[in-house]
Hints:
The protein is mainly α.
Amino acid sequence: xxxxxxxxxxxxxxxxxxxxxxxxxxxxxxxxxxxxxxxxxxxxxxxxxxxxxxxxxxxxxxxxxxxxxxxxxxxxxxxxxxxxxxxxxxxxxxxxxxxxxxxxxxxxxxxxxxxxxxxx
Length: 120
């Protein structure tokens, strides 16, 4: 893939990822990973890169939500504990699984979440 096209995909996809995450309070990774793969990254690099990219976005979005009064301390505490443990397990699993397996698990999760949204 030519560098200009790759840069355009990453920049456009990043703007879309930011918009979705800021608007919905999350979910940008679901867009970021496939877009990074479209730009030429393998599955493992796309997932790892998406995590690093989403971090500053989450911090900025969280600050805006907190400043507007959308904050539940108990929910945050529970979520932080769960996300920390899940993130550690997920990072080790990403290291052990093949790229195809990671892509299949990710696709299955996206389909399941999409179906849940349609049904709910």
